[in-house]
Amino acid sequence: MSTIERDVLGRAELGRLVERREEELAQLRARLAEWEESYDDTPRRDGPFTTISGREIAPLYTRVDRDGADEDEAVGLPGSYPFTRGPYATMYRTRLWTMRQFAGFASAEETNERYHYLLDHGQTGLSVAFDFPTLMGFDSDHPRSLGEVGVCGVAISSLADMERLFEGIPLDKVSVSMTINGPAVILFCFYVAAAEKQGIDPTVLRGTVQNDILKEYQAQHAWVFPPEPALRCIVDMFEWCSEHTPSYNPISISGYHIREAGSTAGEELAFTLRNAFEYVERGIARGLDVDSFAPRLSFFFDVHNDFFEEIAKLRAARRIWARGMKERYGATNPDSWRLRTHCQTAGVSLTAQQAENNIVRVAYQAMAAALGGTQSLHTNSMDETLSLPTEKAVRIALRTQQILAFESGVSNTIDPLAGSYFVESLTDELEREALALFDEIDALGGVVPGIEQGWFQQQIAGSAMRQQREVESGERVVVGVNHFLEGSEKIEIDTLKIDPEVERMQVARMSAMRAERDEATVASTLSALTGACRGEQNVVPYILDCARCYCTLFEIRAAMEEVFGSYKEPVFF
Amino acid sequence: MSDERKIRILVAKPGLDGHDRGAKVIASAFRDAGFEVIYTGLHQTPEMIVAAAVQEDVDVVAMSVLSGAHMTLFPRVKKLLDEAGADQVLLTGGGIIPEDDVAELERRGIGRLFGPGTPTTTAIEYVNGWFAAQQTS
Amino acid sequence: MTAGRRAAGMVMTDAMADLLERFRDGQVPALARAISIVESERAGFQDLLHEVMARGPRAKRVGFTGPPGAGKSSLVAAAAATYRAAGEHIGVVAVDPTSPYSGGALLGDRIRMNDLATDAGIFIRSMATRGSLGGLATTTKEVADLMDGFGFDRLLVETVGVGQTELEITAAADTVVVVLVPESGDAIQAMKAGLMEIADVFVVNKADRPGSARLVKELRQALHLRAGSALKDIPAHHGVDLARIAKKEARNAAPPVSPADWAVPVLTTNALTQDGVPELLEAIDQHLTWLEHGGQLDVRRRDRARVRVRDVVARELSREAWKSEEVTAALDLGVDRISKGEETPYSVARGILASLLR
Q: What φ, ψ does residue A450 adopt, rounded to 5°?
């Protein structure tokens, strides 16, 4: 058969296929119309048939909803563009998600003990929670830290604390994630210096520092410097890490806090991705090759109650990122297109009432994260609305992941919900919503002007208020809170309390540390850092020098603040 | 002369914790219930809160504390209020506060403290009730 | 008590006398409570004001007005910080809107002044408009009087900024700073909003944004136009004499002095970086000097006093009028008759007034 003959035959075949498809669709539409009639005629229970984000959900999805969509182009296969089905080709068949419980409290020693406990119980990565003074760049002995030292996380004020935190934990073997933003570059340098002390070459370090300042201004509010100098430090990290710690993620662009502050799923998706593209633009503006740093950009999403919406959100996130990176920013390395994410179950979804029910909520949310294709996961503890998590509650949370991974079967096949009329429609819809929000942000002049005008903050506060009203009116059922209450509930969950002694000990330890170090080196490295901030040098090596000679967090912050100034909360809501 | 006596309430977020969703929701809810709400923003020290409470002559100070520092922050603000002669001001609030701490703080003269999931209407009813009792006493 | 005070029919309760004593002793909580009493017009508030105002106005009063988002609070905060650094004692009144639906209000202006929150030399008070529409609360002027009586060197008054013309600020301040941003629109809109009449100083804030140079230029041209000097060489255009219109406008607006005497400056600032703030404060001081030396301060204060007396009389008359049962009965009856089409609101009002004046 000649090529032409084959072509003619092929075209005829194609024509017949198209005809058959149209015919089938027409039949489906006719049957659907009948179904709709019977649906309209049947009594229905009260809604709302909306997601927790207020999205209207249809009673039934069929092929008609996906008519015209190009499956190859929009969905494709796992591990290939546009990565809707997962960032890696083999996903959990090769490696399960990393079970990474966020932990940190009291002193570095006590947290170190908890880390050893978690590693012994099968956890595969560490995640450091810092106390509020550390998150805001204050030392444990600063007057503003009073009452908060070691309370909500571990207090780390210098390299000495960081060394104690990882004592006996080989930093070349365990990947460590650190949730810190405003002073992220400083804590990162403490970490690198601690690894050096263990005799480890920084090039082998694996892990992530959150370092996502934009969402701090928008939602989480642990900032130190104003946006422009803060963004400069982040790009300095991109640059330095790509050379010195190539396996380490210098940022985890986070929707989690945006969502916890009250946004909808669509807002979480859009704000996070738009922030991510902002970082990309900043890196490109610095003159960095996009493929030199983009592969190390990582993400962090919330997994809330609405099962399918959350799965669709993760799928849409991967597609938006891949398309943006390839088409808009010209990345050519597929690793730059691949969105890798950590997930955490939704802290705000937990209730103080009938707190054991939280185990169930967390389990469903964890399943959504796995079906959404996450790379690592933190499951919340049932008692987090009452106090810091106790050991027992943390263990149940970890076991929840293990049951999911080894008993439920969800990890056997890749992206099992692909092709579901509903999930694919929802994925498309979330993508469209995000792109529309991008346009709104662009109309404000971009991310930083939007922050300065309070736009993000107002969107988030507005959504939070709407959800609160739905719960208070009883329209949105929250089991144990506004429906299915128990008369006089006595909470019988042990709570964990931090001994105020931790603060006194930490303060004493700091003064001992200050007495031992070489003050002349401290002063000279700090002033060199201030000079670097004033100029255009990369600040990371300078901060690393400060870290190595035991300058404290606040001293380093102050040396930078001299040039950068500090950030002030801009607007009311 | 004026029949209507507006209740003025300071909603404050003390300490270094930046989680202000609860504070903002409660501030909006009090506004919608007809209160005059003074909102001072994040990262307030006890001294800042008390200075604002005095200058604004508020009836109520409501603090949101999720950071676990409640045993330091509530007593400190209470002490400074008393020292400033504002001992008639109701100090109340909410956050992640274990039950026995709530009881201990109430013993120390602090008003009711509300946990997560409390409907805003409960807090509003509480403050209204307290205010009415003040007016008649 | 002096004879004069007795003649005014003032009587002090013990509690009020005690408050006044603490107020005169410089106790901050007494000032705060006095403001609450005046703001809510609680019993005796007029007596309190009478006592406090007895020493006459002394503080320099600077008003800040402009559309929402112009950065008034940030500029007030920057100004307050500078004045404090110079050792002045500062009172700040910041007004936010009352929700017409709930009667509640969210007062958030203190956020921008957090750096000064524990400075004993500054007193910040947030007020809700409580239904007043002119950009201030009904009693903002009185609260400023209390602060003045307490002994502050300078008062900074910030209007609501909800977008409508906020002309009331002229009654509360010696110097009015109008704050605009490039996004506020063009000078024509500023003219329509009546801002040309009330501004003693124009500020274009957020001057790093696009459009600021254009707005500055337009404002300067418009001010020039108002002063009339730009028009004298321009022939009547399409039969309209612009110069004559400008002159007439200036007369109608009736500031006590011809605007030509004070050349309204148009300045640029960036409240975040503090750029231009020293120049703004310099202009405010120049305006105050001009007011004092030219005798205009006295004119403005006399004007304010006149307005205040008229206000108090009007308010008291109204209060007295509706106190009488006879009058409220006449009103009820009148409303019935209006609804039946037997009378109009005007005829009923005429009847009531006639009975009052008898």
A: -60, -40
Instruction: Give all chains having 3 or more CB-to-CB distances under 8 Å with chain C.
Output: A, B
Residue after which a domain boundary falls, among A428, A456, A472: A472
* Cα separation values, C295 from A194, A299, C283, C288, Å: 72, 66, 18, 11
DSSP codes, B4-21: --PPEEEEE-BSS----H
Number of domains, chain B: 1
Of B2, B33, B45, which is closest to C42 when you measure between CB atoms? B2
Picking from C109, C111, C105, C170, the residue whose alpha carbon sits closest to that of residue C136 is C170
Chains B, C: CB contacts within 8 A come to: 91
Burial A323-360 (b: 16+ CB within 10 A, else e): bbbbeebebeebebbbbbbbbbbbbbbbbbbebebbbe
Q: Given A221, A481, A572, which is nearest B18 (Cβ)?
A: A221
Report the residue of chain B nearest C101, measured CA to CA: B32
Q: If residue C136 lies in a helix (H) or strand (E), which one and from where to where?
A: none
For residue C254, what pLDDT is reported?
39
Torsion of CA C21, C27, C28, C34, to 10 degrees: 0
pLDDT number for residue B19: 85
Asked whether residue A548 falls in the same domain as residue A433, the answer is no
* Class of the CATH-defined domain C56-294: alpha beta
Q: Identify whether residues A464 and A329 lie together within a single domain.
A: yes
**Closest residue in C to B43 (Cα–Cα):** C114
Partners of residue B28 in chain A, C-beta under 8 Å: 461, 465, 573
Q: For residue A280, which phi and psi values (nearest 5 degrees)?
A: -60, -45
Three-class secondary structure of residue C85 per DSSP: helix
Q: Which residues of A touch C (CB under 8 A)?
A: 453, 568-569, 571-573
Chains that touch B (3 or more CB pairs under 8 A): A, C
pLDDT of residue C251 exceeding 60: no
Determine, for residues A491 and B99 on separate chains, whether the beta-carbon distance falls below 8 Å: yes
- If asked whether residues A247 and A364 sit together in one domain, one would say yes
* CATH code for position B54: 3.40.50.280
The distance of C146 to chain A (nearest Cα, Å) reads 28
Domain extent for A558: 502-564
CATH of the domain at A260: 3.20.20.240
Paired tokens of A36? 């709709």
Per CB-CB distance under 8 Å, the chain A contacts of B99 are 491
Give the residue with greater pLDDT, C38 vs C186. C38
Given a contact as 3+ CB pairs under 8 Å, which chains touch A? B, C
Report if residue B2 sits inside a domain: no
Question: What residues 57-86 of chain C have any CB closer than 8 A to a CB of chain A?
Answer: 69
| A543 inside domain | yes
- Domain total in chain A: 2
What would the two tokens of residue B42 be?
């994040």
**For A410-452, how does the pLDDT look when each residue is reduced to its tens digit (9 = 90+)?**
999 999 999 999 999 999 999 999 999 999 999 999 999 999 8
C-alpha span between C69 and A553 (Å, rounded): 35
Nearest CA distance, C110 vs chain A (angstrom): 10
pLDDT in tens, A94-141: 999 998 887 777 789 989 998 998 888 887 789 899 999 999 999 999
Interatomic CA distance for residues B107 and A86, integer angstroms: 55
Please report whether residue A305 resides in a domain: yes
CB contact (8 A) between residue B55 and residue C123: yes
Whether residue B89 is contained in a domain is answered as yes
Q: Which domain holds residue B25?
A: 8-136
**Residue in C114, C139, C318 to test binding to B, most B beta-carbons within 10 Å:** C114
Q: Are residues A441 and A533 in the same domain?
A: no
Name the residue among B34, B55, B86 with its Cβ closest to that of C124: B55
Q: Does C26 contact chain A (CB < 8 Å)?
A: no
Q: Are residues A508 and A465 in the same domain?
A: no
User: Which ipTM was obtained for this model?
Assistant: 0.93
Q: Are residues A544 and A462 in the same domain?
A: no
